[in-house]
Amino acid sequence: MKRWRKIFALVVTLVVGFAIWTEAGSALFGKAKDNEAAPKKIAIRAGKLIDGKSDSPVANALIVIEGDKITSVTAGGSAPAGVETLDLSKATVMPGFVDVHTHVLLNGDITAEDYDAQLLKESIPYRAILGARNARIALEHGFTTIRDLETEGAMYSDVDVKTAIANGEVPGPRMQVATRAMTPTGMYPLLGYSWELKVPTGVQYVDGVEGARKAVREQVMYGADWIKYYSDRKYHFEADGVLHSMVNFTDEEAKAIVAETHRLGKKVAAHTIGSDGIAAALRAGVDTIEHGDGLTDPLIDEVVKKGVYWCPTITVGAYVAPGRGGNWTKMVDLEKVAFQKALRKGVKIALGTDAGGFDWKELNQAKEFEYYVDYGMTPMQAIRSGTVVPAELLGWGDKMGAVEAGKWADVVAVSGDPLKDISEVERVRFVMKGGTVYKNELR
Q1: ω into residue 190 within 30 of 0, thus cis?
Q2: Is the CB of residue 226 less than 8 Å from the CB of residue 268?
Q3: Longest C-alpha distance within the chain, in Å?
Q4: pLDDT value at position 10?
Q5: Pairing mode, if any, of strands 243-247 and 267-272?
Q6: In angstroms, rounded to a whole number, what is the distance separating the alpha carbons of residues 372 and 363?
Q7: 146 by DSSP, 3-state: which?
Q8: Would you tell me the crossing angle of helices 251-263 and 275-284 to the nearest 10 degrees?
Q9: Distance CA 232, CA 254 (A)
Q10: What backbone torsions phi and psi does residue 379 show, to the nearest 5 degrees?
Q11: How far is CA 356 from the centre of its chain?
Q12: Which H or E element spans position 334?
């Protein structure tokens, strides 16, 4: 009996001791963990701040950041005691740029041969590696967020690049992705090869209403944030002087794509260049018009009425036109006229470049801002088109697009004044995304 009493007493002692140790240890290590997790505080002294919303810049602004968010923005003032301060007092500070039409899995396709070689000679894993490289290039150019509008035959690799960035494995912008764009069978490259050969295609072929619904579900299952489809092809001018096109999907198919996408809580981007394709996309109820060279006055009015965003992608059109020939140069000129009309009528123009349509290493996508000013925007309007407007398009207007309290700490800076010379945005020297500095040449 005595032996059992001793065993019982020992067990009680061990249990009580373990409980006391656990409580004390939890308190000790919990406190240490809390200290480690405490968000870092940083202050930025901006010589001039273009915050994305105000009509004029703020001089000598102090931006206080805690963790990945901005906690306050004030004119003048002193940084809180003990907080690291980044001196950008001789620079112009802006919100991180947003490009809502990119292709990180593509590296230029002026000609069909350029495009075919990538799909035929480069493996999807290799293209994904280049995609991560391209994402980093975008970030270093000041683009802290991008919407990538299809992988051009690289399947769902955009989801992988997005995930690697989000997990901190590689540097790059925040991404929303569209995975594989859609067209009906036989209406997108690779085309023209022997029927005996099974060659890759740059899109997912989709036919019929049920096929459309299934394709949307499949892409969303694999990580698509957006659905993109090709509304038209074969762009040509007719006697009326309007840029026409051949519409790809039937109205029933296009409406099925849009309806199923919206039912699943996602949005739709339509590649559409000619007036016929634009009209069809608007009938289907898309959320954004991509390219839109053939916008006419009635179509612009419809875009405004429906609150649809327009991503003009001027840079890529001007870049590829000389190499493609045909109607492309005339299409670039036509888009300038459409842009000026759309600007006057209040279309929501969001900056999109089609980077990847031109080689990421050859051209800075921030060139798009310069085209917007050349086409009639003020520099401030152009900056907003690449910050606050696309933030709203992406559904992240409450999180980004402006330098203000509560938003992600996405900040870029240039040495000069982009309100006097918009090309300054092509010379970004400081990049912060989510409170982390990725580039600083202003030390």
Answers
A1: yes
A2: yes
A3: 111
A4: 43
A5: unpaired
A6: 16
A7: strand
A8: 50
A9: 11
A10: -55, -35
A11: 13
A12: helix 328-345
* Alpha-carbon gap, residue 370 to 388, rounded angstroms: 17
Q: Is residue 137 within 8 Å of 119, Cβ to Cβ?
A: no
The residue type found at 300 is: I
Q: What is the CA radius of gyration of the chain?
A: 26
Element (DSSP H or E) covering residue 21: helix 2-37
The secondary element (H helix, E strand) that includes residue 306 is helix 297-306
The answer for residues whose C-beta is within 8 angstroms of residue 423's C-beta and 6 or more apart is 370
DSSP code string of 79-106: PPTT-EEEEEEEEEEEEPEEEEEE-TT-
Q: What is residue 57's DSSP assignment?
A: P
164: left (phi over 0), alpha (psi -120 to 50) or beta: alpha
Cα(145)–Cα(139) distance, integer angstroms: 8
Cα torsion 89, 99, 283, 254 to 10°: value is: -150
pLDDT for residue 325? 87
Q: What residues of the chain score a pLDDT lower than 70? A: 1-37
At 36 the pLDDT is: 53
pLDDT at 383: 98
**Which residues sit opposite 147 in a β-bridge?**
176
Would you give the end-to-end CA distance of the chain in angstroms?
A: 78
pLDDT of residue 32: 39
Q: Provide the CB-side half-sphere exposure for 37 (13 A, CA).
A: 6
Backbone angles phi, psi at 361, to 5 degrees: -85, -10
DSSP conformation class of 274: S
Cα 375 to the center of its chain, rounded Å = 23
CA–CA gap between residue 41 and residue 82 (Å, rounded) = 9
Token pair 């917007």 is found at 372
278 conformational bin, left if phi > 0, alpha if psi -120 to 50, beta if neither:
alpha
The pair of structure tokens assigned to 9 is: 């007493």
Strands of 297-429 (E only): list them.
309-311, 348-349, 411-414
Query: DSSP letters along 198-246, please?
Result: ----SSEE--HHHHHHHHHHHHHHTT-SEEEEE-EEEEEE-TTS-EEEE
CA 225 to chain centre: 11
Residue 137 near residue 428, CB atoms below 8 Å: no
The answer to whether 41 and 64 have CB atoms below 8 angstroms apart is: yes
* H or E segment to which residue 152 belongs: none
